From TrEMBL:
Annotated organism of origin: Pseudomonas fluorescens (strain SBW25)
Keywords of the record: Signal
Signal peptide, first to last residue: 1-31
Protein name (database record): Exported protein
Highest taxon of the lineage: Bacteria
Amino acid sequence: MTMTTIFKTAISSLMLGTGAILCSYNSAAYAATFVNLGHAAGAQCSTAWVNDNAQAVGNCSPPSASANNVPWFSATLAGPQQTLAPLVAGQPCMTLAISNNGWIVGSCANGTNRFFATVWSATAPNNTPTVLTPLPPSLLFPLLRPADVQTAASAQNQYGAVIAQSISASQDSTVVLYTAGSGTPERVSGWGDNCTGIEVNNTLTNGYPDVLMNCPGNTGQPVIKIAKWAAGGYSLTTLALPSGASYCWAAGMNDQSEVAGTCLYPDSNTNVSKTAFWPSPTSAPRTLTLPLNAKNAAKAINNAGHILARRGDDTGIAQDLFWEDTNSSLGVRPIVPLPGSVMTKAVGLGNDDTIALNCQDSNQYPTGCYWTPSGGTQPLAPLPGGLLSALAGIAPAGKFVFGAATSATQTLNAVAAQLP
């Protein structure tokens, strides 16, 4: 799984209001314990991403009522936490993720407060970041099109390639790709077609990865497209709809270009939404049908082709699911909550099938936890004296989870945990 999920569920919101994620730990035996990543970059901190090499990035709020957010990088979970250089002195930046080869992606404001996607190198975190520049002007194809004015990152693969939105002055956007460390855009979608990049995988064709997009169709309803490099540019394939579906949208893609998404049908109170799996860009999708005609939706897919989904329940409380055998709707496994609890909310799926969760304990307080097929749902041990935590995601291989947690002083700390 790439980093798209993290972009969608960035834990930076914790910096603004922790009330929604406060959690309390009861006494329990813990298989994994949070590590505090420090406060060299600020007073209140969170972790945005940890890669498979235990390199971490995140964001801190400084001890100031007016100063900018401070992005940071840590070469190991033991530190040191290093502040990342801004694009322009005095202007804000934030980090989103770090690839396995050490390219950090984020966003920075320029001197006129326009934000651009940016990348730093883990080998030189104090250097000014590289701006991922918008599409340049065009004279002929298309005719007299002015240059775009901003960029916003959507996802990053493990080799450091980034997909982003190149945004025009009229706010029309084009999906573009930047190879690792490069600030030069390669157009992926049609000019100003308002497609949105969802995933960029790690399988390369002549050096370029596949890109998954949700695009507006001719009727305004979404269509799913995969872009694959061919003959010096990207060629787009539209994924097929299942029989009777009104439309579908994509949730994720793996390194085999297998896609997970969700499809809607007419009379959706009876013909419920369903998780869909496309074995290839040209295949007909398989859909997930559950007992009680329960509606369901895809959240992520890993390199094994296993899908994280979410379903409705007759209690009114949605439930996370693990769909392992996509050839059948049988054998789908519910993610069982912690003892004494009734709910979970998944925030990431590792390639080893580990799922990062935000749970509730028996006292009805949310708590960071994780699930494995063999071990079920397990809570994470808190920081010493701390009572509050939330996860933001899981590293691609499934060995690290990360987020934020409080300590005895009620300080919000950037944290990560290595799983057994």
